[in-house]
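Because discrete structure vocabularies remain unfamiliar, we first show an illustrative case, written as a sequence plus integers encoding its fold.
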Amino acid sequence: MLTVLLTLPGSAFPKESWLDKIPLFDKMVHVGLFGALTLLWSGALSKIKKISISMQQLFVLIALGSSVYGIIMEYVQKYFIPNRSFDIVDILADTIGSIAGLFFATKVYLKR
């Protein structure tokens, strides 16, 4: 689903929207999407019983993978999706979301 949202052509979005009036709304969406991506994958993979690394290390790898996915998708948008562009601030927002997802996953799924 996330891949579909990130690869919609720019023409699929409305030209003007009330959401445009909210400062940095697009960046908040990126933070939320990548935070959820990291949190949900961490939750799903936390059920694995036999694993050679700690759950904390697994969650860090998931967050790292989520951030790398965000970087790759920015390049996909730049080179392959009409009316979309590369935005370094989107990468920053994706990374912040991944880190936030890691933080919440650690709090929710790891018993201290």
Summary: The chain has a mean pLDDT of 92.
